[in-house]
């Protein structure tokens, strides 16, 4: 049966590639949604000797200062572990190839299923964290494991198309995890009471792609035995040898800076704006839920721009155009629109007295409030448009170089994505530490955190400068003649 599947996959490469790519991406979507729900399903914990709805209450967690620090430290470790897990993909691909590397990654996602059935005490909570950490590492590995499929089964135009629309799964999964809380508003306890059901369903659905990969996956990236002495060979090498080779290349560090910087503008806005923005505006407790809801709506709009980004900005990768200046410009615009969103929220939405009226229903909000709200959401959409639109161009870029090797490109993605994620983790730790200082006010701490996000994202421009254009005859603008044509 395996031989028949292999023969069919080689005869119908594009169809087979779409099937395998689609199920890996589906598994990644499930993981992102599962992980995203962690933020809202925690609840208030164990308060006044009574468990509140959510998994923190189930595990009898008292949300005091000690727990907050331990929880933050755990998040650091988990995020760092996800980076190491991404690097580990290169080692797995080198030893057991794509099929079983993917099988292991999805199986790790399923390890998260028993997490919610741990005993309702401190020890059970430790087990809960450990099992979900394993799930997180496996889930993060999946985004990398789509790339060998893209490299081996699709042509140049198809790769550009896949790179454009392959970016949907992270934003879509995050939207799934945010929307219920935006709709429910302050009535989230009904969802928090069912946290076991939510986590279990999202985790258990991973069994579908696991079965598909187990049955229909092939070792397409394994070295082919040939009697022809002139046939190209791909040696089975150790992960450490691969790592050593890539660490010697300047381009590796360029990709780390580019992906690490881009992750800052892609992840931090959805993870932190509903906290940073109200803190920067020094919002009083009585209207905090309303302002946090506005920030979450901004997050949804920011993420929803992924449905437009691939058919606008993402189209750049489908033509023979210079990449570096365009990638740098779009990332810079994403930063600009994020900064404008922050300014409008703090000085237009939150500072206006109309926000208080809107929250407390004491009267009509002012026109200034609604105008600011409109601009906030417009800037949110533009931030997302630039962020998600350029991701497809970036993901397709490694496939465009003449010296690319379809058999080993997954190794490269593993290392640059993994080290980029570790770079992001270091920034995440720095951002988390800032508000812990008792000598810094909330608005000042939030301002510092925002500056760190902006500066970190702009570091990606350094990576852009270090890279080379994949083609010498590429045009700067679509309306220009190519270099080759001009020379004739």
UniProtKB/TrEMBL annotation:
Work out whether the entry's keyword set contains RNA-binding.
no
Q: Where are the transmembrane segments?
A: 14-37, 73-93, 100-118, 124-145, 165-183, 195-216, 256-277, 297-316, 325-349, 369-390, 411-434, 446-467
**Keywords, alphabetical:** Cell membrane, Membrane, Transmembrane, Transmembrane helix
Q: Which GO terms describe its cellular component?
A: plasma membrane
| Recorded coiled-coil stretches | none
Q: Does the keyword Ribonucleoprotein apply?
A: no
Look up and give the membrane topology term.
Multi-pass membrane protein
Question: Mostly located where?
Answer: membrane
Where's it found, cell-wise?
Cell membrane
* Cited InterPro entries: Hexose_phos_transporter, MFS_Mycoplasma, MFS_trans_sf
Q: Which protein are we looking at?
A: Putative membrane protein
